[in-house]
């Protein structure tokens, strides 16, 4: 049975005309992930998923794959310019985001949209609930699946990896249901405003 909020969300997406940037004026209620008991196997899998070295430079078997990646990198860098003015910082951020998104089986446009809603691309953002960094990761995750040091959540790659792994975890729990997974990420499972905001902003980050 479809929940009322989800039914309204589906109808709204099917009929609404999105005005670019319209949802940006609505304050995001970021960083409300609920701490839930994790089975040892799940905790171990999540811990393994966040533990590894810095992302390697991408290697492509086919030239067209490499050209597509470079085209994406150039287009996203241009779109991100007003939020990150320094080219080197922008490229490093996008290279890491692409790697961590793909590593977790997520679409880069979705992760960019989530960051836009959660933190506005502010590396050191802290929510009223204490969530940290680009993807507004709650400190309890550092204790559950990391080394217990929440300050590391301000490190760019660490934050992106935690955020992507957590969203992938929620997608798996919700059996691929993006509406419910996004709601769980935000701590508003079953309510439409947060998925609306992320998926509307996602359109800005799709490569035409």
Radius of gyration, whole Å: 17 Å
Rough shape?
globular
> Which structural class do you get from the secondary structure elements?
mainly alpha
Total number of helices: 9
Helical amount: 40-55%
Instruction: List the domain count as a whole number.
Output: 1
Q: Please tell me the CATH architecture by its name.
A: Orthogonal Bundle
Mean pLDDT: 84
List SSEs in N-to-C order. Answer: HHHHHHHHH
Remind me, CATH topology?
Lysozyme
Low-confidence stretches: 1-29
Q: How many β-strands, per DSSP?
A: 0
In short:
The protein is mainly α and 208 residues long. The chain has a single domain, classed as Lysozyme (Orthogonal Bundle), CATH 1.10.530.
What does this structure look like?
This protein has nine helices and no strands. The protein has a single domain (63-208), classed as Lysozyme, CATH 1.10.530.10. It is 54% helix and 0% strand. The chain is mainly alpha-helical. α3 crosses α4 (87-103). It is globular.
């Amino acid at each position: 049975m479809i929940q009322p909020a989800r039914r309204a969300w589906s109808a709204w997406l099917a009929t609404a005309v999105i005005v670019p940037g319209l949802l940006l004026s609505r304050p995001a209620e970021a960083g409300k992930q609920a701490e839930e008991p994790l089975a040892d196997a799940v905790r171990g899998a999540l811990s393994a998923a966040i533990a590894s070295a810095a992302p390697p430079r991408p290697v492509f078997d086919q030239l067209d794959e490499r050209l597509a990646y470079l085209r994406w990198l150039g287009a996203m860098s241009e779109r991100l310019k007003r939020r990150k003015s320094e080219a080197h910082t922008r490229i490093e951020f996008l290279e890491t985001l692409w790697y961590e998104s793909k590593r977790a089986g997520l679409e880069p446009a979705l992760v960019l949209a989530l960051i836009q809603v959660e933190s506005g691309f502010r590396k050191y953002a802290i929510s009223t609930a204490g969530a940290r960094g680009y993807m507004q990761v709650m400190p309890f995750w550092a204790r559950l699946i990391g080394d217990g040091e929440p300050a590391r959540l301000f490190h760019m790659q660490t934050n992106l990896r935690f955020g992507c792994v957590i969203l992938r975890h929620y997608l798996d729990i919700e059996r691929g249901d993006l509406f419910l997974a996004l709601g769980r990420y935000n701590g508003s499972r079953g309510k439409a405003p947060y998925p609306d905001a992320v998926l509307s902003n996602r359109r800005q980050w799709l490569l035409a």
